Amino acid sequence: MSETHYPDLERSRVRRLPERASRERAEVHAILDEGLVCHVGFATERGPVVIPTLYARDGERLYLHGSPASRMLRSLSRGIPVCITVTHVDGLVLARSAFHHSMNYRSAVLFGTAREVDDLAEKRRALERIVEHVVPGRTPDTRGPNEFEEKYTRVLAVEIDEASAKVRRAGPKDDDADLSLPHWAGVIPLRLAPGEPLPDDGLAPGISAPPYAERYRRPGW
Amino acid sequence: MSETHYPDLERSRVRRLPERASRERAEVHAILDEGLVCHVGFATERGPVVIPTLYARDGERLYLHGSPASRMLRSLSRGIPVCITVTHVDGLVLARSAFHHSMNYRSAVLFGTAREVDDLAEKRRALERIVEHVVPGRTPDTRGPNEFEEKYTRVLAVEIDEASAKVRRAGPKDDDADLSLPHWAGVIPLRLAPGEPLPDDGLAPGISAPPYAERYRRPGW
């Protein structure tokens, strides 16, 4: 097993436009670490299901969490294969021809099998990781989970068996014959942008928005 | 079949926090129409796969497109069941307790079966719909697809058999006992924001960014 790259297995091979594909661990990790929501795909008796959920990465492992009533977590805790995808939309690519319109994006597609986290110490670590993944710096500024809350939360760990990243980051690629057409071409950049934090009603007096909320940013921004 | 709601079938029933769930067609449509990327889940011999891709809605039908070499499109064109999910991240919900941290979001989960679009007139309509979905107003300002490009693009149609929306749009829900804790609580709003359009090198002289690029917006913004 390579330390820097995921194995090149058939299932996760990117066939289309392979010049945009990578099995480099660092590239997959960067996409995961910037993302907030992953899309989890798993098989059910009635067909595939894809559910969005928060997550956190810990090395080559992803943690998911939720209520014990969550059908997704119950299904996954049986140890069935799972595919987890994280996608960033970075821009819309407007070419002179309709055909060459495209999107700049970064996506990571992971394959693995989930296991339920029962060990309390690991569960605590996982839950803290998820809070810190979503809002870095938040943990010391919260009331930590009590015994009931820890029991009530279901945590799953997915070890990454295979993964690949796919990236497009370029302007339009028009045919030479189209370059002189009178149509604007270029990229409309897009990014997930934070707004002004909205304080909850009934905050204790004198509490203003902390820097991690006032200047919220994802890794890589 | 209800005109306003999707059927309440077991597979697409939202079990967790059902107060956030809806089968209303108008709500599902609004989430789809604002989205840019959907996550398509389908079964393969080696397990489930989830792939991000552009799309467009036409009534109760979604169009997907891509290269004939796309493994996803080839798999789906065999008429296998598919689950398609579109998610908007609207904000991070910071509660006083770690346990009640949450996310404001809107997601739509659809189930259906794909068919390949062979009819040239439908294919043209679908491709135009996809361009117009991504950049409304763009079509008249492009060179339309030629015969080769139409042939080279594979288009799939997915009729929506079942669907549900799930929405959280609220501040933190802390326990009463936590309300006086000295932690900031509230929402960090997030939205996909467009930047200044970046013109391609070699634009024909005198072509400035058109209004649909300069003031890019999604329906619902």
How is the secondary structure organized here?
Two copies of one chain form a homodimer.
Chain A: E1 21-22, H1 25-34, E2 37-44, E3 47-54, E4 56-58, E5 61-66, H2 71-76, E6 81-94, E7 102-116, H3 120-134, H4 147-152, E8 154-168, E9 186-194, E10 198-199, H5 211-214
Antiparallel strand pairs in A: 1-8, 2-3, 2-6, 4-5, 5-8, 6-7, 6-9, 7-8
Key features of this structure:
homodimer; 10 strands; Pnp Oxidase, Chain A; 221 residues; globular; alpha+beta; 9-stranded antiparallel beta sheet
Summed over residues and divided by their number, the pLDDT of chain A gives a mean of 93
Number of domains of chain A: 1
The number of helical elements of chain A comes to 5
Subunit arrangement of the protein: homodimer
CATH architecture group name of chain A: Roll
Query: In CATH, what is the class of chain A?
Result: Mainly Beta
Question: What is the largest interface, and how many residues per chain?
Answer: A-B, 98 and 98 residues
Which regions of chain A have little confidence, pLDDT < 50, spanning 5+ residues? none
Compute the number of strand runs of chain A.
10
Word description of this protein:
The structure is a homodimer of 221-residue chains. Chain A has 221 residues and is α+β, with helices and mostly antiparallel strands. Chain A contains five helices and ten strands; from the N terminus they run βαββββαββααβββα. Chain A has helices at 25-34, 71-76, 120-134, 147-152, 211-214, and strands spanning 21-22, 37-44, 47-54, 56-58, 61-66, 81-94, 102-116, 154-168, 186-194, 198-199. Chain A starts with 20 loop residues before the first strand and ends in a 7-residue tail after the last helix. Chains A and B meet through strand 2, strand 3, strand 6, strand 7 and helix 3 of A and strand 2, strand 3, strand 6, strand 7 and helix 3 of B. Strand 10 of chain A pairs antiparallel with strand 9 (186-194) of chain B.
